[in-house]
Write a structure and sequence with these properties.
Blueprint lengths: L1 H74 L8 H21 L3 H24 L6 H24 L5 H25 L6 H4 L7 E3 L3 H23 L5 H23 L4 E3 L13
Helix pairs in contact: 2-3, 2-4, 3-7, 4-5, 4-7, 5-8, 7-8
GO biological process, one term: cardiolipin biosynthetic process
InterPro entries: CDP-alcohol_PTase-I, CDP-OH_P_trans, CDP-OH_PTrfase_TM_dom
Family: Belongs to the CDP-alcohol phosphatidyltransferase class-I family.
Length: 285
């Protein structure tokens, strides 16, 4: 009887054990699955946090770069352009077309007087800028040669139009001046800090480079002014086609070539202006 009951209980326990084993497997499987899901969700959250932190860091770096650029632009030297020498240079620039009109109209006497006034203002603006430091400006280093080149170019073209100066010499002078203007414009562009914009380029108070003419160029300017002044005075005082004028034309051609080459050889024709250093704020003691 006892043996029969044991055998019967053994057969009854087998389905129960299998049921318990299946429940244990399901329970363990669910725990493993939920553990994997929690681990996957944690990886996703950490990836999102890393992406967010990288984005924030990138935005912060970009903002710091922009603030640094704006701060550097604020310390670039800005100068006073409303000086007497600059006004004299602008006056020569504005009167050059009218002077050419007088020559083409063969009103040589008035044109000669106006050229004399322009020459006096050319000497005056240099003397004023050297004597009083407050009247010197970096803009003047651009305006003065531009005014001289425009005046001389206008005189050469108008005197060639009236047949008083050979056309070949005028072509040489004008071509050299155009190349110098292109070179000065390129230097101005290179001197600007990044980002280079048209507003900075055409802002006269934005001093970024200073030009310095060579000795050969100064000598050439003096020879050219002597030629155009003598040629303009020739119809007034009746010495047109004088041999001295012809010799002065050859001398002008030589000095024009020498002055142009001097800008290529010399290393001191321009100077980039350094930015003022920003002093860090002193820590409180």
């Amino acid at each position: 009887m006892t043996q029969f009951m044991l055998v019967r209980n053994r057969y009854c326990l087998a389905p129960l054990e299998r049921c318990l084993l299946e429940k244990c497997k399901k329970l363990c499987g669910n725990r493993i699955y939920h553990g994997n899901v929690e681990k996957s969700n944690g990886n996703r959250l950490s990836a999102k946090r890393q992406t967010l932190s990288r984005t924030v860091l990138r935005e912060r770096i970009i903002r710091d770069i922009r603030l640094t650029k704006e701060r550097m632009e604020e310390v670039i030297e800005r100068e006073n352009i409303w000086t007497i020498p600059n006004f004299l240079c602008i006056g020569r620039i504005l009167t050059s077309p009218y002077l050419g009109y007088l020559i083409v109209s063969q009103d040589y006497q008035v044109a000669l007087w106006l050229l004399g006034i322009a020459g006096v203002t050319d000497l005056a603006d240099g003397w004023i800028a050297r004597t009083w430091a407050s009247q010197a400006s970096k803009l003047g280093s651009f305006l003065d040669p531009i005014a001289d080149k425009l005046l001389i170019g206008t005189l050469f073209l108008s005197l060639t139009w009236t047949g008083l100066i050979p056309a070949q010499l005028t072509y040489l002078v004008v071509a050299r001046d155009i190349l110098l203007v292109i070179g000065a414009s390129f230097i101005r562009y290179r001197s600007l800090p990044m980002p280079r914009t048209l507003v900075k380029y055409f802002d006269p108070t934005y001093a970024s480079v200073q030009l310095a003419p060579t000795l050969a160029s100064k000598l050439n300017t003096g020879v050219q002014l002597c030629l155009v002044g003598s040629t303009l005075a020739a119809p007034v005082f009746h010495f047109v086609d004088h041999p001295l004028l012809q010799g002065l034309c050859y001398l002008t051609a030589v000095t024009t070539l020498a002055g142009g080459l001097s800008y290529l050889v010399s290393k001191d024709t321009y100077k980039f202006l350094r930015k003022r250093k920003i002093n860090p704020p002193s820590s409180p003691s």
